[in-house]
Amino acid sequence: MFRVCHSLLVALCLLKHARGDFVLSINPSQVLIGITENVTIQCEFKGSVSASEYDTIDRLRILKETATHDYQIVTEVRKVDHGVDISSSLSSSVKVHGNISNVASTFITLSWSLATSDVLGTYRCDIFGYKANFDVLFEKTPVKVLQEIKPSVQETINLWKKQRGDIQQKISARRDYCDSLVAAVHADINATVADIEQLERNQSNVFKDALLQKVTMLSQKVARLKDTGVFQYWPEGSYALLTPNSGCPENVGALWATGYRKLHTESTDRNFDSISTPSYLQSPSMETVDRNNFMYQHFCVSSGRSRGPAWPRGSYCINQAANGCPSGLSSGYISWQDEVTNSTSSSAGALPRGDYRANSTRIYYCCRADGPASHPIYLPTFKPFYLYRYNGTCQEVCGMKTSSGNMVFDTDNSHGDSYENPFHPDGTIDNVRIELCYYSP
């Protein structure tokens, strides 16, 4: 025990502050939540190796300031017996990379593909290392702040135009790819027809066998093409879906707009917010800030330009868009009583039809129960998506695996939750519970 304490005391005595070889950078330093893409926070060695005091780096960490003005570690790369270990307290959607194998290449990077509310804050980088004589070195970079910007109306319009242009480019590229696949199949069909015509002129068994082989290969190509989802479109009309952590579904010929509702739940008494695990919802989904509790619902809102068919018969619910339900689905809503005391519920981006106030939330749904849930329906299978459970069982979708889940909102204890009618997702009120169905390829 004495030797351990003595070693710690010696380490503290030898601790020296390095002169600033590391730099913390944030790009961009101001973001629009749900709009700004490719946000990075990086701490890296920028000094001269020959002039640096560092001989080795033991650990490198990025910290974030808390509500109590302390700093909490969000990610760290450190040396261990078997090599290098990288850890993070952030959601799995945030990518973390780092290296401390030698001083010159030391870095750690956090990457968000799309800015979410958890990216905002004040950051610092701490570095621990050793001199060549084994003196301990410690360095602390100046803090950097990542802020949310509040754009003007015109700036918002310009951003949406840019995002729309980017999405249209992706759609155009995918359409060209699909057209090339269809053209290849069409060419194979023409070649097969020519072979059939040749068969009428030549009835030899050898030619028949070759033709049968070509027909079999063509059938396999068509089957593989169908499996890619090339011929699948999301149903026509305007509507919205919950956003999974993989992002909005692919939809050739149509666009998705994104947004979220941040609902202030019970914060003056014990809180029972919960999300079933594993969760595949877009992050963040739950949050506590200065003893105030929040639940998020992220949405993908359809532009209404999909070339798909009508929504199929079955048993499920979706979110309603501003102009009502698609054909065959019935309208209803759920009302949440948000935290009454100093409520700060908020919204951003595109949302389903609803009434979104600082202390109350109403969201409209479209539901149907005109077919058995056990009878699979056809929807695009290229990427995961969510439907709401209706009538007790998750609707089966052809070619997709189904996982059930739920969200529980601990609403204000004044018991102000309500339904309009039976057309809403399965669940309960007086602490709103919503049953979810997640579909993955």
From TrEMBL:
<dbReference type="Pfam" id="PF16977">
    <property type="entry name" value="ApeC"/>
</dbReference>
<keyword id="KW-0732">Signal</keyword>
<feature type="signal peptide">
    <location>
        <begin position="1"/>
        <end position="20"/>
    </location>
</feature>
<dbReference type="InterPro" id="IPR031569">
    <property type="entry name" value="ApeC"/>
</dbReference>
<feature type="domain" description="Apextrin C-terminal">
    <location>
        <begin position="234"/>
        <end position="439"/>
    </location>
</feature>
<protein>
    <recommendedName>
        <fullName>Apextrin C-terminal domain-containing protein</fullName>
    </recommendedName>
</protein>
